[in-house]
Amino acid sequence: MDRRHYIYLILILLSFTTCKKVKLKNEYEVLKGEWRWYRGWGDGGTSELKLELKKRGHYDLYRNTDKIEQGRLVKKDGRVKFISEKIFNNKDLMLNTKMIVFMSNDSINITKTDCADCAFSTFRKN
Question: What is the CA 55 to chain-centroid distance, rounded?
């Protein structure tokens, strides 16, 4: 292999280490469990949505009993961000690249960025 290949390989490895997968423990343990969509603005949400946050940093989003999105949680810039594992057929994606901007024992607010004019969703713990 020449130097270009080594540089390319190093860049790929660095891109995997920049986002740290979130394991739901310590301050994030409150997130683990089932959450129901409660309200939102411009998010396309309904009371049919259920979000499951798992201990190992994965999430599943359901509309009634149909899984419409799945992915992992990563910590970036001090926020917990949703990264979808569905690369194709992403017409239903609701959480991909959004982040949790507020969390408490019984509710979480999810939005694209931390701004007043952005679409947001509030989920309540089931």
Answer: 13
Instruction: Find the Cα–Cα–Cα–Cα dihedral 63, 51, 58, 121, rounded to 10°.
Output: 110
More confident: 49 or 22: 49
28-47 pLDDT, tens digit each = 888 999 999 999 988 888 99
User: How many independent structural domains does the chain possess?
Assistant: 1
Indicate whether 4 belongs to any domain. no
Report if residue 6 sits inside a domain. no
Structure token pair of residue 24: 């739901």
24 in any annotated domain: yes
Task: Name the nearest CA neighbour of 95 among 48, 62, 54.
Answer: 62
108, 102 Cβ separation under 8 angstroms: yes
> 10 Å Cβ neighbour count for 35?
23
* Parent domain of 118: 20-125
What letter represents residue 39's amino acid?
Answer: R
Considering only CA atoms, which of 87, 25, 26 is closest in space to residue 56?
A: 25
How much is the average pLDDT of 52-64?
92
- Residue 104 belongs to a domain: yes
